[in-house]
């Protein structure tokens, strides 16, 4: 189990850029508490003046008359109250702004780091879990910095200042007030150790709950079409029950803290009240000093009961901090590369040399695959589902790192190119089109922020999307909904092609770009692709062989290996796997087309 202090040290190390703000916030918290503790001393001095008058403590400083002494105490009280208020305003503002700054930085850094991780990381974790880290966990940290950090500092200040005052004023009985404190601290540490695992479980359960909600909202159409609303409510109830139960177990323990600590604190308070009073009656302790001791005892011990809530905030924050820091510590597998690459410099020759690759905990998907894509030409890659076609694309974009072999672009190892430059040189139109919630114009221009409306319209025209766009209520300014849910599959596909056209990459990848559309839409897409693939290196991955029949070279994959290669006509004449696939799709009895 991770030690409770480890996440705090990680957080302090992360926050070193805000060191100056932290120092100021800590200073204001300490000064506020010091001035907050001054009134009991003023009360003790006032009682001393009333009882001893010209023989009081203040008279030793040359202030003889009772009126002057009380006036001095009144002015001192006004100054102390003003300073206490000023420093309270200062620490409130500093801590809250610091919480916002750290929360902001942590969320951006966590998200930026998350984007750099390879796809395998996302495939092994749910979106809801990651959302819980980026949102709920970081918000827990904000709550602690808003309140908890200041409370811890002020409790420590109270212990040091009042404990020191006790030993100065009445060392004989000061120990009576101090005795309960070790028990309070030991009790706090014990409760903290018990709460650590319980709050870690709470964070785990809320992740599961967020994951369930995220998945269900994304799949609402499937839920409705299968009429499984009641079943999903039941599943959500189970996850919510688990979250509630884990919270209740933590609450049961944290709620017991204050009542138990109160018993210990009362023992110290009553002891000072009794034995200090006896000392005052015997004349061993001044009445003013006794009055101050009683007030100070209350100020020393009763605030310790607030440790329960502070401890609760601390444990929740540290459980969340642990998860955020684990995310930031996740190593980035892909080497970023160091060679710059501008799209205008790319010739477009691609060579795969003996590439082998296996997804984590699975058997090899690609086995010594070798193929070549000459610059400016179009190749087709076909094969059954699971043969490794789309995996080649993921490796080309370096979404995964291959296990062995080399991939060369214009004779240079892909791993040597700066990762961002490489991906800017490649345009991908996938079968799984992702559109963002926004306008048609924003989605076409995604990745090409400087594009003009004229350029966007030209890209839409080439993608044969202009006609349906003009029929939308607001044309290019129409909001298409999350994931483009207001559009048909073919319309989404054409917007994705328009986006790739606007990017104008030297290398274009079409990964099953027509697999989910009807024949008429496919024909329109193929017409647009014929225009944009000219003089551009193009890799077309297709299940429908009609999409690749005019490619310069076709590779047939099976079981992760290249089984056949050649033109459409030569592969039909070969009467092999490609010819068999062609006959199945066209219904022909022979291999002649």
Automatic annotation (TrEMBL):
InterPro entries: AAA+_ATPase (IPR003593), ABC1_TM_dom (IPR011527), ABC1_TM_sf (IPR036640), ABC_transporter-like_ATP-bd (IPR003439), ABC_transporter-like_CS (IPR017871), P-loop_NTPase (IPR027417), Type_1_exporter (IPR039421). This is ABC transporter. GO terms for cellular component: plasma membrane. The chain crosses the membrane at residues 70-91, 152-169, 175-195, 250-275. SUPFAM superfamilies: ABC transporter transmembrane region, P-loop containing nucleoside triphosphate hydrolases. Keywords: ATP-binding, Membrane, Nucleotide-binding, Transmembrane, Transmembrane helix, Transport. It is found in: Cell membrane. GO terms for molecular function: ABC-type transporter activity; ATP binding; ATP hydrolysis activity; ATPase-coupled lipid transmembrane transporter activity. It is a multi-pass membrane protein. Residues 350-584 form the ABC transporter domain. CDD domains: ABC_6TM_exporter_like. Its main location: membrane. The keyword Nucleotide-binding applies. Residues 24-316 form the ABC transmembrane type-1 domain. The keyword ATP-binding applies. GO terms for biological process: transmembrane transport. It comes from the Bacteria.
